[in-house]
Specification:
Radius of gyration: 18 Å
Strand order of the largest sheet: 6-7-8-3-9-10
Shape: globular
Structural class: alpha/beta
Strand content: 25-35%
Oligomer: single chain
Number of helices: 6
Order of helices and strands: EEEHEEHEHHHEHEEE
Amino acid sequence: MIIECKNLSKSFIQGDEQINIVKDLDFSIKSNDFISIVGESGSGKTTLLNLMSGLERPSSGSIFFNGEDINNFNEYELSNFRANDIGFIFQSHHLLPEFTILENLLIPLQLSNSKMHDLKELAIEILDKVGLVEKIDAFPSLLSGGERQRVSIARALIKKPKVIFADEPTGNLDMNNSKNILELFHELRNLFKLTLVLVTHNISITRNFSKCYEMASGNLNQL
């Protein structure tokens, strides 16, 4: 298993009440799995994604990544884990408007020991895989919503992570662009041997995933 969650819980105190977002959850993901997690807003699916990716710390329980409990990582180790072992795709692309597409992709590589020429070649290769190599000098404002999301996918892939976490990656897109992004995920899965965990409120986009789960009241049920 590449990811294992054991007795995982996340809660917070609101007034005199304890709010349980994730409840004593056991969950595992194999390498090259394509997992979708559906659920209504507030069901806890984004919180679960944040826990598995190290963006939030759990209240209790463990998250194992390739056998290592990431809860035991210090801040430096956790930062290194997020920078190199995983990629994250958000609903909003978070591209920097003052930089070109190529420059946006090079930002995560700035601390690399590789030469800039080699980094540019890698960025161009990734942009080619997502069908945007001809837009390398364009600024985000000149791209469509679907194209900007493709850039955010390329940015998540740039360090060739073991797992991609995607939080509502088609939430801001129309039906046609959503379909294109999902098809791209499946193409990239075969190309890069990706493991993908995607959360969405739209169950219709989860066809052809390895497994689909529904999250409700802090619990996961396989569909």
